[in-house]
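Is pyridoxal-5'-phosphate placement plausible here? Inputs below.
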Amino acid sequence: MTNNQHIARRDLAVLWHPCTQMKDHEQLPLIPIKSGQGVWLEDFDGKRYLDAVSSWWVNLFGHCNPVINKVVKDQIDTLEHVILGGFTHEAAVDLAEKLVEITPKNLDKCFYADNGSSAIEIALKMSFHYWRNLGRTQKTKFVTLENSYHGETLGALAVGDVALYKDTYGPLLMDVVTVPGPDCYYREAGESWEAYSLRRFADMEQTLAEHAHEVCAVIVEPLVQCAGSMRMYHPVYLKRLREACDKYGVHLIADEIAVGFGRTGTLFACEQAAISPDFLCLSKGLTGGYLPLSAVLTSNKVYDAFYDDYRNLTAFLHSHSYTGNALACRAALATIGIFQSRDVLGRNRELAAAMAKAAERFEEHPHVAEVRQTGMIVAIEMVENKQSREPYPWQQRRGLKVYQYAISQGVLLRPLGNVIYFMPPYVINEQEIELMADVAWQGIQLATQD
Ligand SMILES: Cc1ncc(COP(=O)(O)O)c(C=O)c1O
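Reply from A.M.:
I modeled the complex. Tokens:
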């Protein structure tokens, strides 16, 4: 009989899961999902789970969305995939045109890959290679922010700063310049996000003043450092960063892989600072959570530095087999189509207000140091001591207790250490927001009772 236990047993015999200590599954049941509908997932025993984390932040308009389903089904009967070197197809062209149209100005060209980390590798390589093509061979370094996360491949890991993922591989990684960040969790009592983020820019300014001659680019996650415990900052930092990158002749790479497509309240987070990066990395929500695809957008200025006779060897010879996959491009077009046919951002403002209201009570919890929000992301920071903000030792795995409780109640929360967060699909409704918050509240009560 096909039930949870049966699939889980077969799975554990042959499968090695991402971001998992597999031994945990001696105690922690693996959850085999049979189907999905809207914000709900259903397992093989018929139990339902509210997907409060949008399946690793990818899903925007619900599982099995009928609009996206139809478009992907239509495409599959025409063309599933074709090599993108020397060949092209309509979906890849339609999507590139659309991305150039909807992203900030001066982003004129679109380079595809098939996951977020690869998009980061591409932006890093393109920036380095741009300077090299211009004869600026001393530019070989990247500047990154403390607590940043850009993926798990070696280049992406090197420009990240989350010790849990990075430290083990230290000997394999290139050296980067890591600058103290604008993360507003550390602001003084009574200090605004804006004042703190602005104040923290001084370190970046100084770093660029000292290192610009050897720096290709600064890479940032605009407004929210998602994998870095959902830490947030004010758009003024991005405004200043854009000005400084221009002043010192350094590229700005905006990694909107997690925050793009409406997550922060605007279609792209950079819009809140009214800036345009030199490279914009997109993935995750790009296909509405359907298929692996990523895109790096850049300017004609960058593109032109690679455009020359072949024998001059200035071309960007990077490729991935599934680059520009036709089904993925169609899913992305359908996703963008939903933004254009409905007032998604307007509805998200209502939902964000409902999430703010539902999260209000956590402020008073004796083991919550902060409740923070940017658009459709709410994070709740659990601590051992509310006054001193002493964190719970990571070995206690309090977040895991919240996860386990929430699963028992039919809600998929996946805390980052001691930080519980809500990042649901945009088709969640007010009742489901209440449910998600109630379960998180009870889970935190349980996890902090001793
Ligand atoms: C900001 C950011 N950049 C890059 C990545 C890596 O994307 P992927 O997991 O598709 O490689 C992630 C994934 O969580 C991310 O949050």
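Short version: The first helix runs from residue 4 to 14.
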